[in-house]
Specification:
By secondary structure, the protein is of the alpha/beta class. The protein is built from 13 helices and 16 strands. It has two domains: 219 residues, DHBP synthase; 105 residues, Threonylcarbamoyl-AMP synthase, C-terminal domain (Rossmann fold), CATH 3.40.50. It is 33% helix and 20% strand.
Length: 350
């Protein structure tokens, strides 16, 4: 078991020695958890096969699930990408730094352990000052999947990281709460002025269409079958400790359906947890309830989703009943995560 060092960064310039140490750990083959604007990532040298394999070991993650390499800027991406197409360049210019991961042909220097054996590499430049400073000190592309045990909800605070990763990594950099709360969108540049979404996230379809005329969804997102081209496509993810059912529809219809499910579960002697909006939550007992914000505030739900799911680890509940949202805008990414967390148990009540 590793001796995990937890450090809080509040001033990049005044605490640069800590970031230099974190960079050395990466270059020496160790593991450092770092903050981003989306979720916390578990970092290793993305050009070191053994270091990448240590991520799979720490997370208990299947090795055919590709890793995202994080870089501080476009120059960092050129360390790993064999070519940057005009469409990819356009996306980088507009969305980087930010919650967009771009899948590109890889250079031979990138090991199979970082790509799940694919001939492509997933690259992202996070919109987080502490993160990018750390990446510059590392000096190599840093593999950075979410810093949680595989299948579990992703962490958005250092405390949540320590729950899963204490003793599994060398250092955790506490940069405060993540402000987006769901992972990056992953796209593949599948042609001139055309991209395919491999995983929905912080950059929405609507935002992509402002830059690229043709935006499609990968068939694996729909069927759940096939070789994973990017993280989060094949295996169960984001799951809380208790089984969960998600109900989607209007506020009144969701409340009515949740009430019916709650009464049936209560009759069976089950303890129920609720992950709901303020409006829907007002109709139910507040014990074992996590309220994420107003019914129509998708940004609040995205920001609070994983913390809400993790909150039920400390509550003794048998079942979680959750309120979902429509799939417009950020809702697509939210429902992608909620469906996986619920194992597909989603009820539509429109």
């Amino acid at each position: 078991m590793k001796q995990t060092k937890l450090v809080e960064i509040t001033d990049i310039e005044q605490q640069k020695e800590i970031l230099e140490e974190a960079g050395r750990i990466i270059r020496d083959g160790g593991l450092v958890v770092f903050p981003t604007e989306t979720v916390y990532g578990i970092g290793a040298n993305g050009l070191d096969a053994d270091a990448c394999r240590s991520i799979y070991e720490a997370k208990g993650r299947p090795s055919d699930n590709p890793l995202i390499l994080t870089v501080p800027d476009e120059e960092g991406a050129l360390q790993a990408a064999a070519v940057i197409s005009p469409t990819a360049q356009k996306l980088m210019d507009y969305f980087w730094p930010g919650p967009l991961t771009i899948v590109l042909p890889r250079k031979p220097i990138v090991p199979d352990a970082a790509t799940g054996g694919l001939d492509t590499v997933a690259l992202r430049c996070p919109d987080h000052d502490i993160c990018r400073a750390f990446l510059r000190y590392a000096g190599v592309p840093v593999a950075g999947p979410s810093a949680n045990l595989s299948t579990r909800p992703s962490p958005t605070t250092a405390a949540e990281v320590m729950h899963d990763m204490d003793g599994r990594v060398d250092m955790v950099i506490d940069g405060g709460p993540c402000h987006i709360g769901v992972e990056s969108t992953i796209v593949e540049c599948s042609g001139d002025d055309k991209v395919t979404i491999l995983r929905p996230g912080g950059v929405t379809i609507e935002m992509l269409k402002e830059i690229v005329p043709i935006v499609e969804m990968d068939t694996t997102l729909v069927t759940g079958k096939g070789v994973p081209k990017a993280p989060g496509m094949k295996y169960r993810h984001y799951a809380p400790s208790a089984p969960m059912t998600v109900v989607v529809g209007t506020e009144d219809k969701v409340t009515e359906k949740l009430q019916s499910l709650y009464e049936a579960l209560k009759a069976e002697g089950k303890t129920v947890g609720f992950l709901v909006s303020e409006e829907v939550g007002s109709h139910f007992p507040h014990k074992n309830m996590y309220v994420w914000g107003h019914h129509d505030d998708k940004e609040a739900l995205a920001n609070q989703l994983y913390t809400g799911l993790l909150s039920f680890d400390s509550d003794v509940v048998d079942v979680i009943l959750a309120e979902g949202v429509d799939d417009e805008g950020l809702g697509l990414a939210i429902m992608n995560r909620m469906k996986k967390a619920a194992g597909g148990h989603v009820i539509l009540v429109d």
